[in-house]
Amino acid sequence: MAKVNVKICMGTTCFVMGSSQLHDLVDIVNKKYGEDVAITGSTCLNYCTDTSEYSKAPYVKVNDIVIQEATIDKVLQEIDKCLKQQG
Ligand code: FES
Q1: Which long-range contacts (CB under 8 A, 24 or more apart) does 65-70 make?
Q2: Core-most of 8, 29, 33, 37, by most CB within 10 Å?
Q3: How far apart are the CA of 72 and the centre of ligand 1, in A?
């Protein structure tokens, strides 16, 4: 069973701001972590409306942690942290 849940926001704002470039992440995560991590795309996570600027998109959620201006590296780092915490 997956220990860490990752959601890549594919809502319009995040998509335009680069979440489409995070698509490789799905393959990387599946190869690297297998069943320890479940990665899915998501409709708007509603974080883009929290701020008047859209500059913090794209958003990715790793368990309950929200990553702003997400990059593949940032997400992988957060997954590693979560897996360590969960043992
Ligand atoms: S489009 Fe990603 S949080 Fe709204």
Answers
A1: 70/8, 70/19, 70/22
A2: 8
A3: 17
Q: Of ligand 1's atoms, which has the minimum distance to the CA of residue 9?
A: 2
pTM across the whole model: 0.91
Give per-residue pLDDT as tens, 28-64.
999 999 999 999 999 999 988 865 555 789 999 999 9
What residues are paired with 6 via a beta bridge? 39, 62
CATH code of the domain covering residue 72? 3.40.30.10
Whole domain around residue 9: which residue ranges? 4-86
What's the CA-to-centroid distance between 24 and ligand 1, angstroms?
19
